[in-house]
């Protein structure tokens, strides 16, 4: 197939991609696919605390603003990622030796400065990312250790105060494959809502593989998440071909299994009520851009376009719904 049709044009909900500012050279295949195929963007790195907030009183907006400009030029929605996380922290925060009140002030300053800066450009935020462990307990992050479990609720309230129009999300991984973690996250979200905390959506990252999880597990997870009534974002989708520690080449058979897996996932998403569909976001444009290669140091082919930025069976399947 070719890329004359746009992927987002095939669906009634936004279809997004994670982008890096430093790869957006005008005329490059990366730039052209980013602008032509997707109508929502999640910053892959530029909005993380170590990129935006390098020193206590210093914010660095240039790369993030360039990405926001790109979205404006191409009429793309900008989904902010991420205000609070245990990773991508600047060193000064990891070494911050403040009292509880000073940690609270730091949490508030970071969230509100960033939300205010992008007010009107960012329409939704991942406020907290990956706060739960696999066993359903809260992860012992720097925020939890200094502020207790109340930091979660505070993060959402501070974000809402700074930008009352933005939709606020909790985002996490393995919710599709780990029912223990999923139940913990869903009941925490329920409790937040009952207490009137401004949380509007749940991001299921969905870093999955052609082998795992089974389609029946995906169905079960999406059904359970749907019951919350929250907006759902399939927020960081990729479908790995290789198991950990292995790196086989992508055969036509494997690429077809990848396409089938994605087709199934998108089919599930299409069954959600429109009001709950925040969109589906792919975690990168083409295979060379995937975080899996750099982060796990293994060859893999998890995205919609190949090493030459040509459409793969996964793309072709999705562009013909
Ligand atoms: C990853 C980026 O893709 C990498 O470029 C970066 O080095 C590390 O972070 N879950 C998340 C994302 O929520 O922010 C991560 O992104 C991938 C896992």
Notable traits:
321 residues, alpha/beta, TIM Barrel, eight-stranded parallel beta barrel, 12 helices, binds (3S,4R)-3-hydroxy-2-oxopiperidin-4-yl beta-D-xylopyranoside, polysaccharide degradation
Describe this entry's structure for a reader.
The chain has 321 residues and is of the alpha/beta class. It has one domain: Glycosidases (TIM Barrel), CATH 3.20.20.80. The protein is built from 12 helices and 9 strands. Strands 1-2-3-4-5-6-8-9 form an 8-stranded parallel beta barrel, surrounded by 4 helices. α9 (215-226) links the parallel β7 (207-209) and β8. α9 (215-226) packs parallel to α10. The chain is globular and about 55 Å long. It binds (3S,4R)-3-hydroxy-2-oxopiperidin-4-yl beta-D-xylopyranoside. (3S,4R)-3-hydroxy-2-oxopiperidin-4-yl beta-D-xylopyranoside is lined by residues 44-45, 129, 205, 236, 291. Its EC number is 3.2.1.8. It catalyses: Endohydrolysis of (1->4)-beta-D-xylosidic linkages in xylans.
Separation, N- and C-terminal Cα atoms: 13 Å
How large, in whole angstroms, is the Cα Rg? 19 Å
Class based on secondary structure composition and strand pairing = alpha/beta
Helix fraction, binned, reads 25-40%
What are the low-pLDDT stretches, counting only 5+ consecutive residues below 50? none
**Count of discrete alpha- or pi-helical segments spanning 4 or more residues:** 12
| Annotation, overall tally of beta strands | 9
CATH architecture name: Alpha-Beta Barrel
**Sheet with the most strands: spatial strand order:** 1-2-3-4-5-6-8-9
Shape: globular
Mean pLDDT: 97
Q: Which oligomeric form is depicted?
A: single chain
């Amino acid at each position: 197939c070719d890329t004359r049709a746009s992927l987002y044009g095939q669906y009634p909900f936004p279809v997004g991609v994670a982008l890096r500012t430093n790869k957006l050279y005008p005329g490059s295949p990366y730039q052209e696919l980013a602008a032509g195929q997707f109508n929502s963007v999640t910053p892959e790195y530029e909005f993380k605390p170590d990129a935006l907030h390098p020193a206590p009183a210093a914010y660095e907006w240039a790369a993030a603003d360039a990405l926001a400009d790109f979205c404006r030029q191409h009429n793309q929605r900008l989904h902010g990622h991420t205000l609070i996380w245990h990773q991508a922290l600047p060193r000064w925060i990891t070494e911050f030796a403040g009292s509880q009140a000073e940690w609270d002030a730091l949490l508030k300053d970071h969230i509100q400065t960033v939300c205010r800066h992008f007010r009107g450009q960012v329409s939704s935020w991942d406020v907290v990312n990956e706060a739960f462990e696999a066993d359903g307990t809260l992860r012992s992050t720097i925020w939890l250790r200094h502020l207790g479990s109340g930091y979660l609720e505070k993060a959402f309230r501070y974000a809402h105060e700074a930008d009352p129009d933005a939709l606020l999300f909790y985002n996490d991984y393995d919710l599709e494959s780990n029912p223990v973690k999923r139940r913990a996250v869903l009941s925490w979200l329920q409790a937040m809502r009952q207490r009137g905390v401004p949380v509007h959506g749940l991001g299921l990252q969905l870093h999955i593989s052609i082998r795992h999880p089974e389609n029946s597990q995906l169905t079960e997870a999406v059904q359970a998440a749907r019951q919350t009534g929250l907006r759902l974002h399939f927020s960081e989708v990729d479908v790995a071909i290789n198991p950990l520690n292995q790196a086989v080449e992508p055969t036509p058979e494997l690429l077809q299994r990848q396409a089938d897996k994605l087709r199934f996932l998108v089919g599930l998403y299409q069954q959600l009520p429109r009001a709950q569909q925040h969109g589906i976001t792919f975690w990168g444009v083409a295979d060379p851009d995937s975080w899996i290669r750099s982060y796990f140091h293994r060859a893999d082919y998890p995205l919609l376009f190949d090493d030459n930025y040509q459409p793969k069976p996964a793309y072709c399947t999705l562009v013909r719904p």
